[in-house]
Design a protein that fits this description.
By secondary structure, the chain is α+β, with helices and mostly antiparallel strands. The chain has a single domain, classed as Trna Endonuclease, Chain: A, domain 1 (3-Layer(aba) Sandwich). The chain has 5 helices and 7 strands. Strands 1, 2, 3, 4, 5, 6 and 7 form a 7-stranded mixed beta sheet that branches. Strand 6 and strand 7 form a beta hairpin. Helix 1 packs antiparallel against helix 2. The longest helix is centred in the N-terminal third of the chain and has 11 residues. It is globular. The relative contact order is 0.20.
Length: 135
């Protein structure tokens, strides 16, 4: 099933997938957006309940393994997350820049297994956070 963009970030992602010249704009759009991540663990907020993390708070994020590599998956929308999981899961909505900071040093997978799925290596994450141009 082809990926159907539901928001401005997803429209930017689709454009970046077909037009390399749009990639810089996509990274900028991504860093200014909220993303969705799968959360595991004992201390979960109630469904639909907002909460704020404080100093020293931790969360356990979901992982996936693909072709021998472990990734932390994240998603451009709740719809994109639900398409991948097919099951009810706990999730967090978090600013992408904060998510990248929190997961620095790990491989990340945006909209894993979708037509516009994108991998981010630890080096690319650092480069994006440091504001260097991506090619």
């Amino acid at each position: 099933m082809p990926f159907e963009p539901k928001n401005d970030l997803e429209r930017s992602l689709v454009k970046a997938h077909s037009d390399d010249a749009h990639r810089e704009q996509f990274y900028s759009d991504l860093m200014a957006s909220d993303v969705f991540v799968i959360q595991h663990g004992d201390h979960l907020p109630k469904s639909g309940e907002a909460f704020a993390m404080g100093p020293g708070d931790t969360v356990t994020l979901g992982w996936l393994k693909h072709e021998g590599r472990s990734y932390i998956p994240f998603f451009t929308s709740l719809d994109a997350l639900q398409l991948m999981t097919r099951d009810s899961v706990n999730y967090l909505k978090i600013n992408a820049r904060n998510f990248f900071e929190m997961t620095r040093g790990n491989w990340l997978a945006l909209n894993a297994f979708s037509d516009v799925g994108t991998e981010f290596s630890p080096e690319v994450v650092t480069t994006i956070l440091d504001g260097a141009p991506q090619r």
